[in-house]
Records
---
Amino acid sequence: MTPTSTAARDETPAEVELDAAALVFDNDGVLVDSVEAGNEAWTRWAEEHDQDPAHVLTVIHGRRAADTVADLLATEAPDRVAAASARIDELELETAHRARALPGAHALLTALAALADSDGLRWAVATSGGRPLARARIEAAGLPVPAVLVTAEDVEAGKPAPDPYVTAAARLGVDPAECVVFEDTEAGIEAGRAAGATVVGVNLMAGPGAAAHVVTDLASVSCHAQDGRVVVRLAT
């Protein structure tokens, strides 16, 4: 996948064009804003499980909740870890209705859904969240639910392992190396790169890291179908 770039004089942002077989999006932090609700749920969980909330909030982003719980309660009995994992799932679902679409997400996904119907354009969401939580947040944000939604239950290893993006590509019927992935966390960027995809950093929580390209939000992204593929334009 070879990008092309154009930049006007003065301070006009550069435009990068990418040709891909499919687009795959992370959910939280890329499509939906769930930070406040998620932090509230995890703070309650931390207090219930004798954990430091401030520390917990530094380690939760981009990974499956079950993996985070297992790390935080590494010395606990398996049944306690399982119960604690079920509890955070419950707490996050309680706040899922507060999720809101991030800038540009509604317009872009609505366009993608229409192009999927008219031109067979392929796109998916690959999230570290569980399926009930992912669907609840997408629906609360008023976004189209993709035909391909890869969640925590669908993979053996979560981000930063490549499994979520490899699985999404397989379900879309494309090579992961032919995908453009949109991510906001270090773990997600690592997962996309490990899968061989081109990674675009969006709403980044930290620095650009290993992302190939960076945009402020999805309002800087547009696309159109061409010969069974998708052409993506990034205003960087």
Note: Residues 4-33+99-235 form a domain with the Rossmann fold fold (CATH 3.40.50.1000).
---
Amino acid sequence: MHSKFIPIKKRLMLMFLSVVIPIFIVGIYLTINIRQDMIKSRERDILVETERVRKGLEDNFTSIIQISDWIYQDEGLEELVTKRYANPKEMIKGYNEFTLFDYFLRYHSNLANIRFFVDNKSFMTNSNFVFADEQIKETEWYEMALQGKGKIYWYNLVDPVTEKPFFGISQKRI
């Protein structure tokens, strides 16, 4: 009869182990599964965000390329920059009549500025039109634009007016 009784210490140990070990195993299982679910959720979030950024960049680049094409095809621009001006008043009148750049800058927030480089000594530099001096003509992007015959090139450039770096395109127009 004495052998049927299990000491209290052993009973408590058995009850403790029968409760703690399953809870410990369930805890480890849940921790591993929750971690894996969180990793999968983060991966999905990253993919969605990456796709959103890709789409935004694609839309911006497409918009900028379309604007470049519109500028490339504008006949008024060619007339404005190739004309030999007798005096500054005549040239300022031409500036004021040419509103294409202002339109694009007003209605396309993805454009910071438009710089059109002109090889016409009678043409004065302003915020949109810049005389292409020898220093500009020796830059890689300017030479590539001249050789490209209308092909668009993307570059990290320094704005000759503000002297700030920016990401821009170059394309030979005329």
Note: Residues 75-170 form one domain.
---
Amino acid sequence: MNEFLKENEKRLRVEFLPPYAPELNPQEYIWCRWKKNYMANFCPENLSQLIQRT
């Protein structure tokens, strides 16, 4: 990755974001609500159970 960035430094700029910043990534609010309400304590045994739950 560093080599690629070096080769393309004139057209690319790297932006470092904090590890968790929901104000910069609003979908985090949706995931948080989903994990607390719909998927809490749920461990599907297979893909069809996961699909049915979602």
Note: The mean pLDDT is 87.
---
Amino acid sequence: LTSDHVNFQIQECIDMLSEANEHVSMERLESMLLQKYQVRYFRALNLRENRIDMMPAAKDHDMKIGKVNAYIHNFIWSRSSCTLYELKECCREFHTEKKDFEHLKLGPLQKMPLIYDLFKFPMDEYIPEITSVDLIECLHQ
């Protein structure tokens, strides 16, 4: 078993969780990887890297989660009103080709724990295309 092989498997787990529309947390990622190798602890893989967050694919993914969470906090705090749809559209900035949030392979935006904490939006619902302007117009009617 090599570090390169395990790193490839980590990326495979990220892809599988993302394609299944699951939130791709580090905990979920590690759990799936350990199940694949049928071990209880990452150290049992006997690699030079003794923690999953030392593996390049996992480290990159963890950094991406951190950046997106920081962006979400700043987005919310810098706007007096915003919608989840607007946040999702602005998160395109994280993808090199400005593609949908799903291309970041973090899972659906509404399944991120931070989103639930801030918006209380149901994790299994589709994000409606509603903007702040739509809300203001609705209030004026």
Note: The helical segments are 3-19, 26-37, 56-78, 84-90, 113-119, 132-140.
